[in-house]
Amino acid sequence: MDGKHMQIGEVAARTELSLRTIRHYEETGLVVPSARSQGGFRLYTERDVERLMVIRRMKPLGFTLDQMRDLLDATDRLDGDQVPPDSREALLERVRGYEQGAAEQIAKLRVQLARAEEFARTLRERVERNQSTTVS
To answer: CB-hemisphere CA count at 13 Å for 89?
Structure first.
């Protein structure tokens, strides 16, 4: 191998995704290996790893596979050489929509995290209060 391609195991390690998850994303058309070895092994490029990282970042924010596919399509087209100005603005608007959706999900997660921290703090205080009572 020339160093430009990685096998699925290396990609899994770099993205912290399971082999099964990467294969699932292939089956759904989100990421397609850039090549296959003579032995039929999937081969991935740095660009494929970047796509998987986008997917990995979108998943915990609740984006669907269709939304992931749509965003990847928009970014692929934006990265293309020849995008007419009117198409470029429409693509940018799609990406902005996902950026806004991500920001909204992050705000919700911050609220959940604050509640979880408050809950853990009240439990810790209860334990500390009861430990000091039983030690005396």
So the answer is: 2
